[in-house]
Specification:
The chain is of the alpha/beta class and about 375 residues long. The chain contains eight helices and 16 strands. The termini are far apart. One of its GO terms (molecular function) is ATP-dependent protein folding chaperone.
C-alpha cells in the first residue's frame, strides 16, 4: 500500500498528515487522509541528545522561532558538541514527527513531502534539503506552502478549470498572500507574481491587539461598554481582516491582475478558523471563498496528497509492503493525543518567551465554499 506523509512546519505549529490508498473503485487515488496530528513548533533535547517536539519544559528553554530560514532571528542551537542551524532544527522536527506517526524512521518506501514558506531562494531550499539528507530523509520532496494548499484544493474541489487561485494564509505568526495557477497545464512553479508576507496580521498580532484593548478597558473602568465581549472580539477580528486587504490588493498589483482574473480565494492557516475571516473576504473580494473544516491542516493535507502521488509515480502504480491504513490511523491518532496532552500540560506551566498562547486544536468550523464564497541542561539556544 502506498503511503504519503505531509509535514507542514509553521512558526507556531507543526502539522503532519497521512494520505493512503488501497485500490478499489478509486484505483490508485488516495481514498483516505488520516486525522492530522499537531505539535507546537518547539524543540528540546534530553541529556542523550534525543529531540522532543512540542514540549515546553518546566525548567530550561524550548527552542522556537526557527521555522522560517529567511529570518535573521531564526534560532540556532548547540547540543553537546554539535552546532545545529535553523535548517537542522527543521529537519529534526520532520524526522521526529514522522517517526512518531509511522512508528519508526520514514524509509524510501514512504512518500514524504515537506513544505516551506513560499519565496525561499534556491540556497535556502538546498540548505534544507542537505539537512534532511543528513538525517536519512534525502528522498523527501520540498514544496512551498501555497503549492501544497493548491494540491488540496484540486483534490477536494477538482477537477479545476485552468485559472488563478489566491491563497490567503493567515497563520499564528503572520499573513502570506500568494497567487497560484491551478487546473490543467500548470507550470512546474505555479506561483504568479510575488507572494507578500506581513506580520501585522495573524494570531499573534490579533492577540496583541486584544491585550492592548484589555489594558485600555482596565484603565477606563469596569463599564460593560468597555469590556472585551464576544461581540467586540468579532468586531475587532473583522476589522483586522479588513485591514489585511491592502496586502491582497498589493499582491494583485505586483502580478498585474485584478480580482476579476482570480477564480477563487483559498483560505488556510490556524488563525483563519473563525467564520468572520472567510465571511469578510467573500464580501469584500466578491469571489468564491473556499476554506476547509480545519484550515490549519490544509497545507499538510495537500503535502500528503502530493507525497502519495509522487510515491505512486515512482513506484509505477505497484503495491508497497509496509504500513497498513489501520495501523497508520491508530498511530497518528496516538501521536495527536500525546502531542495535544504535552502541549496543554506545557501551556499550563509556561510559554515560550515572547510567544502568545495558540490552541493546539479546536472545533472545526463549517465548510464554506462558494458562499457569496505550524537537554535543557545540554542545549544552548541563541
Amino acid at each position: 500500500m502506498t503511503v504519503g506523509l505531509g509535514v507542514s512546519i509553521g512558526t507556531v505549529n507543526t502539522v503532519c498528515a497521512v494520505a493512503s490508498g488501497g485500490g478499489g473503485r478509486h484505483g490508485h487515488r488516495p481514498n483516505r487522509i488520516a486525522p492530522s496530528a499537531t505539535w507546537r513548533t518547539t524543540l528540546t533535547f534530553d541529556s542523550t541528545g534525543t529531540a522532543r517536539v512540542g514540549r515546553i519544559p518546566r525548567h530550561g528553554r524550548a527552542i522556537a522561532e526557527f521555522a522560517d530560514l529567511t529570518q535573521r532571528s531564526a534560532a540556532t542551537a548547540r547540543v553537546g558538541h554539535r552546532a545545529l542551524s535553523a535548517a537542522d532544527l527543521v529537519a529534526t522536527v520532520v524526522a521526529s514527527v514522522a517517526g512518531q506517526v509511522l512508528g519508526g524512521p520514514p524509509g524510501p518506501e514512504v512518500g514524504l513531502t515537506v513544505t516551506h514558506p513560499v519565496g525561499y531562494p534556491p540556497d535556502r531550499v538546498a540548505e534544507l534539503r542537505h539537512a534532511l539528507a543528513a538525517l536519512g530523509l534525502g528522498h523527501a520532496t520540498l514544496v512551498s506552502e501555497p503549492v501544497a494548499a493548491a494540491a488540496w484544493l484540486a483534490a477536494a474541489h477538482g477537477p479545476l478549470m485552468p485559472g488563478l487561485a489566491l491563497v490567503y494564509d493567515l497563520g499564528g505568526a503572520g499573513l502570506t498572500v500568494t497567487l497560484v495557477r491551478v487546473g490543467a497545464g500548470c507550470p512546474a512553479d505555479p506561483v504568479v507574481g510575488e507572494p507578500l508576507r506581513c506580520t501585522d496580521f495573524g494570531g499573534r498580532a490579533f492577540g496583541a491587539q486584544l491585550a492592548r484593548r484589555e489594558r485600555w478597558s482596565a484603565g477606563v473602568g469596569p463599564s460593560l461598554a468597555h469590556r472585551v465581549t464576544d461581540a467586540a472580539i468579532t468586531e475587532l477580528r473583522t476589522a483586522h481582516v479588513r485591514h489585511s486587504l491592502e496586502a491582497v490588493y498589493e499582491c494583485l498589483r505586483i502580478a498585474d491582475v485584478t480580482m476579476a482574473d482570480v477564480d477563487c480565494v483559498l483560505v488556510v492557516g490556524g488563525a483563519a478558523r473563525p467564520p468572520e475571516v472567510a465571511g469578510l473576504l467573500a464580501g469584500a473580494l466578491a469571489r468564491p471563498v473556499i476554506v476547509a473544516p480545519d484550515p490549519e491542516r490544509t497545507i499538510a493535507d495537500g503535502a500528503a496528497l502530493l507525497a502519495y502521488r509522487l510515491g505512486e509515480t515512482a513506484l509505477g502504480g505497484g503495491t508497497r509492503r509496509g504500513h497498513s491504513a489501520r495501523q497508520l490511523r491508530r498511530r497518528i491518532a496516538r501521536a495527536a493525543a500525546v502531542a495535544g496532552a504535552v502541549a496543554m500540560a506545557g501551556a499550563l506551566i509556561s510559554l515560550v518567551p515572547g510567544d502568545h498562547p495558540v490552541p493546539v486544536s479546536g472545533p472545526p468550523v463549517p465548510v464554506m465554499h462558494h458562499f457569496g464564497e505550524r537537554d535543557a541542561g545540554h542545549i544552548t539556544a541563541r
